[in-house]
């Protein structure tokens, strides 16, 4: 039994560059099929191209040491949101590489694809989106109606002070006086 890699011709520079372009195009299509907005996909692509230009070689060759240098030195003075967004995009790109191109990249380059960001060098700001309760931020009545389960019972929204008891279960009861109905009101 022989190893089939012996019979493969070595990958040339142009072939690897073409493959890199195909991988990035596939990433864009995957993000579009996931329903992301065009502006988000453009931002992701821009982040990847910026990191690629700094690195000077394909992104799948980026090591944790390279990531340390990029996020710790090159982006040291950049806003934390820039570091976080680029780290998030890089992480998603490596997830894409690991899911769809791991075997082929190993066959072409001999490298095992692994995200260069880990718990030691990942920017500390949360990458995952944080969703707020629209009623607590003075959200639209339609959003509050959806939260109320479509019952038609809407809480009264006042600037910055809306309380929903138990979310949809409380059906939007507004607390007007916390002392109770018979607490000297009369």
Shape: globular
What's the SSE pattern? HHHHHH
Q: Please describe the biggest sheet, giving its number of strands, its sense, and whether it closes into a barrel.
A: none
Task: Name the poorly predicted regions.
Answer: 164-178
User: For the residues shown, what is the average pLDDT?
Assistant: 77
Helix content: 40-55%
Please report the distance between the alpha carbons of the first and last residues: 95 Å
Strand percentage, roughly? under 5%
How many individual β-strands? Answer: 0
How many H/I helices?
Answer: 6
Whole-number total of structural domains: 2
Radius of gyration: 25 Å
Structural class computed from helices and strand pairing:
mainly alpha
Describe the structure.
There is one protein chain. This protein folds into two domains: 11-109; 131-178, no CATH class. Helices cover 46% and strands 0% of the residues. Mean pLDDT is 77; it is low at 164-178. The chain is an all-alpha fold and 186 residues long. The chain has helices spanning 13-33, 38-55, 64-74, 80-100, 102-109, 141-147. The protein is globular. α2 crosses α4.
